[in-house]
Design a protein that fits this description.
The protein is mainly beta. The chain is rod-shaped and about 150 Å long.
Length: 326
């Protein structure tokens, strides 16, 4: 194997040449000097656990070489560090088969050269929940993650689907990502392409607590809260900020509706008996009822066989007409 075309051809190499009278002893050989090339192998990124394989054997990195005859076929492959991914092969003088973008490739030696295996570090996505003390979890490409922060390495541009599994005491607020584009950040289910390193944060809010009560206590009055009839007070429940809450009083027959009172949230229907609100804040909702009174005035004595007319005035207090009077 020679590297200069001028050194090729047949060469006589003699290891012994003796003339002794008529006896002549030749110990020699004919060597066919063929032209070859030296190929160096390298990886563009140092410090990985990747192995570059040449004809099935690992070369010594970061730089190694091998000598070949011209027109030798060389097969390339690699065992890639899990944190990295294959990009392409590069060379100054050689063409790769089927092409440089295939991990398993080959080339035919035509000259001395350097073959480089190009790798790229895979994107790392770190997932965080804010606030961190909830029991919420995430479903990430079908796998449930409940320890945060947690980091997952993806192939570049892999599509990732994420959804929020909420602690019952918390509501979904938004997703936030610092370096990738979320498709629907205001939806509890979204997706993104893992194009580069990023931190994806699930933002939650603590659900407001709404406490209901009735004044005065001791009546048989109940409240229909979003279709759920509650008759024991005080009564508390947590609500989502974005949900509309509808409240309808079911008043004790001996009482009449008085008013609603809210400490923090706005009653959308004002002073109406059937009302609604969005629970943006913790609140105390008070239903006031009043006992209805009836006053009779006019002629004190009325006889059913009396031919004289009589006038009786009936007054209702804390009532809403029309009235039924038996």
């Amino acid at each position: 194997l020679v590297f200069n075309p001028l050194d090729t051809g047949l060469v006589l190499k003699s290891s012994s040449f003796v003339i002794d009278g008529c006896d002549t002893l030749f110990v020699d050989s004919m060597v066919n000097c063929r032209l070859g090339a030296r190929i160096y192998y390298a990886v563009n990124i140092g410090g990985t656990t990747s192995d570059l394989l040449v004809d099935g054997f690992a070369v010594n990195l970061p730089l190694d070489s091998a000598d070949y005859f011209l027109d030798d076929l060389v097969n390339l492959s690699a065992i890639i560090d899990p944190a990295y991914e294959f990009v392409y092969w590069s060379s100054d003088n050689h063409t790769f088969l089927p092409n440089a973008n295939f991990l398993n490739s080959s080339f035919v030696v035509n000259s001395s050269d350097t073959i480089i295996l190009h790798l790229f570090k895979k994107p790392s996505i770190t997932y965080v929940v804010d606030p961190p003390t909830t029991s919420s979890s995430m479903t990430i490409n079908g796998s449930v993650m409940n320890v945060f922060p947690t980091t997952i390495v993806y192939p570049t541009n892999q599509n990732v689907n994420i959804s929020a599994n909420l602690d019952p005491l918390y509501g979904f607020e938004t997703w936030h990502a610092d370096s990738v584009a979320l498709m629907q950040p205001t939806s509890s289910t979204t997706s993104f392409s893992a194009s580069n390193n990023a931190t994806v944060t699930l933002h939650l809010y603590k659900k407001p607590t709404i406490t209901y009560d009735i004044d005065p206590p001791g009546t048989t009055t109940s409240i229909n809260i979003n279709g759920n009839i509650v008759s024991v007070f005080p009564y508390s429940e947590t609500v989502f900020k974005e949900d509309l809450n509808t409240i309808i009083p079911i008043v004790d027959p001996n009482f009449v509706f008085g008013s609603w009172r809210a400490d923090s949230n706005t009653l959308l229907n004002g002073s109406a008996m059937i009302n609604s609100f969005y629970g943006e804040y913790n609140d105390n909702i008070l239903l006031t009822v009043a006992q209805m009174s009836v006053f009779i005035s006019g002629d004190i004595e009325v006889c059913d066989n009396d031919t004289a007319g009589a006038q009786i005035k009936v007054s209702f207090k804390h009532g809403t007409p029309p009235y039924s009077f038996v």
